[in-house]
Amino acid sequence: MAWITLIIAGLFEVVWAYSMKLSHGFTKLVPSVITMVMMIASFALLSFSMRTLPLGTAYTVWTGIGAVGAFIVGIAALGEQVSLMRVVAAALIVCGLVLMKLSTD
């Protein structure tokens, strides 16, 4: 259950990062509200998953999902640049997440 909660928390992190971008510095109401709600939900689920998962594992996986997810959303929804180095960097983050999962009891 902790891993599922952690993955959902990471996905919520992607949502709040994207909505924060759309809020234009918290000047647009709806994206700003979505950002705040998703931040609270993401932190709450991260906190819940940390009841059983080690701090280092939980935080690393949470931020990794957020980083790679935001990278994908940036490319898919915002037209951000795709380059070989950026893709390799994202792939290395995913490899780190897999290793972190495999190294946790």
The structure class reads mainly alpha
Rg of Cα set = 14 Å
Low-pLDDT sequence parts: none
pLDDT averaged over residues: 95
Give the strand tally: 0
Judging from the principal axes of the Cα atoms, what is the shape? flat
- Total number of helices: 4
Tell me about the biggest sheet? none
Distance between the termini: 14 Å
Portion in helices: over 70%
Protein name: Guanidinium exporter
GO molecular function, one term: transmembrane transporter activity
GO cellular component, one term: plasma membrane
Pfam family, one: Multi_Drug_Res
Question: What would you say about this model in short?
Answer:
With 105 residues, the protein is an all-alpha fold. The chain is built from four helices and no strands.
Could you explain the architecture of this structure?
This protein is mainly alpha-helical and 105 residues long. The chain has one domain (2-102). It has helices spanning 2-22, 29-49, 55-78, 84-102. The longest helix is centred in the middle third of the chain and has 24 residues, at 55-78. The radius of gyration is 14 Å and the shape is flat. It starts with a helix and ends with a helix. 26% of the residues are buried.
